[in-house]
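Repro case for the chain-ordering regression, as requested:
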Amino acid sequence: MTTSMTASGPLPYKTIGRLSQYRRLLGLRLAMGQRNVYSHELAAFAGVTAAQVRRDLMIVGAKGSPTKGYDVHALIECLGGVLDDPAGQRAALVGIGNLGRALLTYFHGRRPKLSIVAAFDVDAAKTDRVICGCRCYTMDKLAEVVVAEKITVGILTVPASEAQHVAAELEAAGVSGLLNFAPQPLRVGPHTYAEDLDMTMTLERVAYFARRNR
Amino acid sequence: MTTSMTASGPLPYKTIGRLSQYRRLLGLRLAMGQRNVYSHELAAFAGVTAAQVRRDLMIVGAKGSPTKGYDVHALIECLGGVLDDPAGQRAALVGIGNLGRALLTYFHGRRPKLSIVAAFDVDAAKTDRVICGCRCYTMDKLAEVVVAEKITVGILTVPASEAQHVAAELEAAGVSGLLNFAPQPLRVGPHTYAEDLDMTMTLERVAYFARRNR
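-- result from build under test --
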């Protein structure tokens, strides 16, 4: 099993999402003591075809057999080679409101190679403390901490009106990936990747199609 | 301005998302006392072209003028005619953990025509109380409350292992739209619309592209 093929360039957006889903199922299977997994099992979990799973895993250089499927442990290693930075990646969260706190708790310890190491808020009453092992700072410390902690990923849980300027501050300090929960799509530079996770929009869409399906 | 064109059938997934985004910007503009808005302003907010905005708004029957743009108030009404159920829609949240509580707080009062009216958890210690105006019940009350409260939308913030059977219970009770935060894609029947909002997958994808962009 090798990950050499992935060094050639970034994989597509959707492929990365599926690889992350496969790895999660593999983690569950490993915990249950299962040593092999078939493409159709991964396919059922991720809601895609078995052929799609085999294509995805071929791209990342994983080898399976028609009779035994894939070795769970080796496949987790292989996917880690694609999804994880070997040195680990560090994230910061900005906006310690209800959602911010819930996310700090939710993501705590979920991924050994990806951890939220700092949180920021304008409100001094919410900072200078530790939430789930994550130190909380006031906003004026942002650039300094991002540089010192080598933070490359930013999570935004600020109000819509603050999102764009906080994103710009994070970018300027060296962050190159942003996950934005604020209900305001971000404009970022060509060397920054940003994804908007708009929960209100998603809920409105679910409500719309719920009516249409009734 | 008319919404008659929308009665012919459901609009596409992406269109509904954009209409929701436009409405949010319009709400902000209305609060600032602005009476007109141009397609290029909506376009900049949603990260699409002005031509796309004009196409979307033509589909829902909104009329603008090249000189004055669109009337903000009339456009909000028009979008409401598409996005909202005139009688209002009621949602239930299942899983009162950190994320569930944060979402109850986050969504509280955000949409007059879409409100979370009940929350459920297996843990009796978390129920029989009110969070943000939302009554919390134990799971054995689920079917009864969903029917009595005419709930059509379900929000899942349960562990991955519980997501599928909770979704099935909600469906059986009459829910036809599901927003799933559990890290486990849902399988639902043909008359139910489900959307997975997988935060761990999204964060892993952001981290991956953050490295590639560095």
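Ordering looks correct now. The longest helix of chain B spans residues 13-31.
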